[in-house]
Each structure stands twice: as structure tokens, then as C-alpha cells.
Amino acid sequence: MGRERNYLLLELKVIVEALIFATTDLEDFKFFCWRGEPRMVRPTPRPETLLEMLAVARALRAPFSLVRVDLYTDNKQVLVGEITNCSANAGEFFLPRSAERKASQLMFG
């Protein structure tokens, strides 16, 4: 839909995943990593498994300079959702818009 070039040559298919943690009310924790370190994470509040999630994000980001690692937790175990170099089709803004500068400083400053 967003015409990301990295999906251009993939075969179209439907993927059905099992329900995790027996709930549909999951928080998707997005770890933005730059040069080997998670620099930002959304949303809040902090999960009990945050230190484990940071370790997983560090391990998965290893081959990339800039990547977003999405993780899920039930405060007992950590599961990987997605690893992407094109967060939100490279078109999402931080809200409020004034947060763009702060996010850039956190990531690259």
C-alpha cells in the first residue's frame, strides 16, 4: 500500500498469526535503535521486562545502523513483532509536531 521498495519483489500472500498472550489488547513497544543502541522507545508505562526487551533490541539491531525493533510483552516473556528500516513507511510524524526536533536529538544527537 505504501509502496516501500523493499516489498516490491515479494510474493503477495496472507499471513495469519496465532493470538499471543491470549488477548487482543497488546502494547506494541517500538525500539528505535541507532548505531547499536536503543535510543527511544514508545509507548509508556515501562513494562517489568524492559531490561530484557532492551537486550533483545540490542541483539537484533546488530547488522543495522538504523532500525526499529517492535516487541511485545505480558511482563513475563518478550516476543518479537517486527524489525524494520522504514518505520511507518518513512512518513510518520511525532505528535505533537514539536516533538520531531526532540526525537532527532535523542536519536542522532
Observed structural traits:
alpha+beta, four-stranded antiparallel β-sheet, 19% helix, D-amino Acid Aminotransferase, Chain A, domain 1, globular, 4 strands, 109 residues
Describe the structure.
- The protein is of the alpha+beta class and 109 residues long.
- It has one domain (23-108): D-amino Acid Aminotransferase, Chain A, domain 1 (2-Layer Sandwich).
- It has helices at residues 50-60, 99-108; strands spanning 29-34, 37-42, 66-73, 78-84.
- Strands 2-1-3-4 form a 4-stranded antiparallel beta sheet, with helices on both faces.
- The protein starts with 28 loop residues before the first strand and ends with a helix.
- The relative contact order is 0.18.
Helices and strands, with pairings:
Blueprint: E1 29-34, E2 37-42, H1 50-60, E3 66-73, E4 78-84, H2 99-108
Antiparallel strand pairs: 1-2, 1-3, 3-4
Helical coverage, percent range = 10-25%
Q: How many helices does DSSP assign?
A: 2
Determine the oligomeric state from the structure: single chain
Category from helices, strands and their pairing: alpha+beta
Radius of gyration over C-alpha positions, nearest whole angstrom: 15 Å
Question: Roughly what fraction of the amino acids lie in strands?
Answer: 15-25%
CATH architecture: 2-Layer Sandwich
Shape: globular
Q: What gap, in angstroms, lies between the N and C termini? A: 32 Å
Question: Would you list the SSEs in sequence order as H and E?
Answer: EEHEEH
Largest sheet: 4 strands, antiparallel
- Domain module count: 1
**CATH topology description:** D-amino Acid Aminotransferase, Chain A, domain 1
Low-confidence stretches: none
